[in-house]
Amino acid sequence: MISRIQRLNQWEYPIFTVRFGGDNLPVYARPDFDHCVLLFTSQENAERYIEQSARQDPNANLCLVPIDSDREISEVLLRLPSSIGHVIWDASLQAGYYRVATIQEVLEQVSDFEGEL
Q1: CA-based, 20 to 30 A from 38: which of 21, 60, 96, 114?
Q2: What does the alpha-carbon distance between residue 23 and residue 21 come to, in Å, rounded to a whole number?
Q3: Domains contained in the chain, number
Q4: What is the CATH number of the domain that holds 19?
Q5: Each residue of 61-110: pLDDT tens digit?
Q6: Rg (CA), the chain
Q7: Residue 51 is part of which domain span?
Q8: What is the pLDDT of residues 22-59, one digit of tens each?
């Protein structure tokens, strides 16, 4: 099931993303509707995702990347390819409930960003 986040300023820093070792861009997923970057509101959630990924693919080589500020999250999101239009918060490889937002919605919540994609 996919749900819109009611209010996007619910996170506290640090938040986390994961990336493949040696890659500069965060891991992204492709649910039924769009390419999505993965963000996590806690280190535990991000580590759980990495563990689940390693069980499915021992060669995945994912690493945890902390994001400590509005500026950093803006930089991460603005570097993404244009094909990635959404964020999935606290993704899990097990079927479940996901919180989803557009990249634009997240950027509008950070103090450094004023504009449109």
Answers
A1: 114
A2: 6
A3: 1
A4: 3.40.1350.90
A5: 899 999 999 899 999 999 998 888 888 888 877 766 677 888 988 888 88
A6: 13
A7: 2-107
A8: 676 677 666 555 788 999 999 999 999 899 888 988 88
